[in-house]
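Narrative of activities, Objective 1.

The group set out to show that a structural description can be obtained from nothing but a protein's sequence at a throughput compatible with the screening campaign. Below is one input-output pair from the validation batch, recorded exactly as produced.
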Amino acid sequence: MTNKSRGTAITKVERPVPPDQLIERIVQKSLLSCSPGTSILDAARSMAEGRCSSIVVIDNGRPVGIWTEHDALAVDLTDPTAFAQPIATVMSHPIKTIAAGTTVGDAGMRFKLEGVRHFVVVDEAGEATGIVSQSDVILRHGVEHFLVLRNVRSAINRPMVTIAADASLKDAVAQLHSARADAAVVLGDDATDPGIITERDIIRLIASHKAIPATVGQIASRPLVTVREDDSLLGARNLLEEKGIRHIAVTDKADVLIGLLSFSDILATLQYEYVHRLDEALRERDAALLRSRKDLSLARKVIEASLDGIMIIDANNRIEFANPAFTHMTGYTPEEIIGQNPSILKSGRHDDAFYQHMYEILAKQDYWQGEIWNRRKNGEIFPEWLTINVIRDEDGDVSQYAAIFSDITERKKTEERIKNLAYFDVLTALPNRRLFTDRLQIAIANAHRHGHLMAIMFLDLDLFKRINDSLGHGIGDQVLIETAARLGHCLREGDTVARLGGDEFTILLPEIEHVEDAAKLAERLIAHVKQPFLIDEHELYVTTSIGIAVYPDDGESVETLIKNADTAMYRAKDLGRNSYQLYTPAMNARSFERLTMEASLRHAVTRGEFRLAYQVKVDMTTGRMSGVEALVRWHHPEMGLVSPADFIPLAEDMGVISDIGEWVLREACKQCKHWHDLGLPPVRIAVNVSAIQFRETKVPEVVARALRDTGLSPHFLELELTESVLMQRVDEVVVVLKELRAMGIRISIDDFGTGYSSLSYLKRMPIDALKVDRSFVNDIFGDDDQATDEGAEIVSTIINLAHNLKLKAIAEGVETAAQAAFLHSKGCDEVQGFLISRPVSGEDLISLFDRNLLPEAQT
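Output recorded for this entry:
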């Protein structure tokens, strides 16, 4: 198809009429004819012998008239000389002709409109080539599908002519002529049955040239052939053809004659049907044209309003149409793009094989759909979803291609985001657990195939939770992002670092030569991570614990390697953190022990396996007991006494620390009230509250319930909180501490100096004391029992800070007299530690009341 301008005219092409619809198919080629001078008698004899209903009068080779059976009714049968008249004197003229190229349907309409039963068929030169009659149309037109659906009654449209059997033939002919009928029923009497007289009977009478019968009954045809009114027209037509007659009588259900049926009647019915159908067809055509115009208008509106780009390409691969969305997406206006080859849009990202495959699919399926990259007018390439449909003409040749496309740039971006969410960590952009597992599976297969070693590492940031709790998750997230970057800088190309969640990272080394290679990398990772982090004016120090598992020695499956690396990492934590451990089978025993401990810990409270031990606090001025700290101990029925350093972190991880803490608080209050009831000097009982318990429970309600249940006065209860508690959600913490203070509860800060306290926060907090951490007390003196500048200075600074804030200073972990003396010299208010007393039971503590518990040198 070539490109057409808008002004090109469109010429309507007339479609040829199929040959089987022309009258040439049914015309009688043998034309019965005579000259103008032929007598009526001879003409009648020719018609009778040929069983024809008409004879054409030919003069000089051209038809000039026709004499039919109906015309014979005008002959005076009583005048013997009438039969000798030339045919030219009685013929019908001018003759009715019809072109050989006329359709059968149009011929039927002309029979009806012109009231004739014969047409002479002429060619383009006007020469007669045959004759066609109503009978030919009915018998040879293929109208069976119409006739079978209609009954005889529907074709009887005129009254039946009846003639008495004793009527004269002259009168009978006159009656037929006046009624313009071609047949009449001759009534019967007691002696004879009804019969029929037709125009053909008159022709045969003339042709016989015998004496004219006295009555019509003498020449009537008998018996009278009949059909029922409810019989089908097809059955009646077949009976007419079978009997070689042109009329048949019709009876009703009571066998009473009600009419005559002829080929003319059948043709009239067909003509009515034809007109009716033609009218319907014309109405349908008009409606279709209206719908078509509306559809075209609607289609154009839809195409122009479509958000999808649409272009039409002709068979010569030239663009001939583009809609507004095409212009919007590509930047090309219709004036710029029409007439161009679609290759103007090529992005260069697809090779010739891609386009060759596209056209092969189009040739086979007339349809192609897929993703393709194209180029806008400004040079930008973009992805689109393209659908191409082949449009073929009536001969099956390609006339056009319709291309519909949409810009899928945003969809591609969304897909990429979804892919990142599925396979990458949102915070650090590192691979997540799913992608790491996939890569590990591939690495295992590769190592197995090539027989080399590979390793994975599990990394966990030590005490990272303190950063989140004290400085907030925003700072914690920055630490994780920086950690991810540091880990990535240590790896080779092809290695993978992933974040599994929280502060856990994994590293995949898909190929190593020696186990030592993994160990050396672990040392490098530890060194990089422990460098200070400078985040929002905070200088933070973080360490990491690493577990290493090597394929195939430590496992041959994804699950086994991950589990063993995780086990090795926990072993590194158990051994002091900031280190790495290579997996050994013995670690599984430790891991099993941890699992066993978890199962038991969940039921330890209900089983009554916890006990409290109490450690004395001593007033440095009087040397006497100033308070007691309650310390929880777990007596496992099988494992024996379990260290708090083992089960407290586990309880926090499992989420049962709050239940244990509430039990400790109630038991400590009960024990303190018991001492008071015994008349012992009143002392305060101190109970530790973990950061998780403080966050998960309503501490004032828990405390109030414990005091109410035990009857202990609030003034004898002290709560010890870590710095991490104070640094999380500061405003909320202040409200809770003020509520506790209003109840009369004393508040102290435990392990002070090990966290990230801010002086501005401390000034806002309603607290009563700072407890110097045992690690600082231990650093006061070196191995030679000489005071160290750094250690002593830190302790002195904390004591001075407490006093400047009008707070008590309490030192814990005091184990030597020298430490006690130093603390006394610096003005420390209270001390506790093994120098005074180890943690003891409530009953054993009774002996320590009301006595000097400090060495005499300090009192």
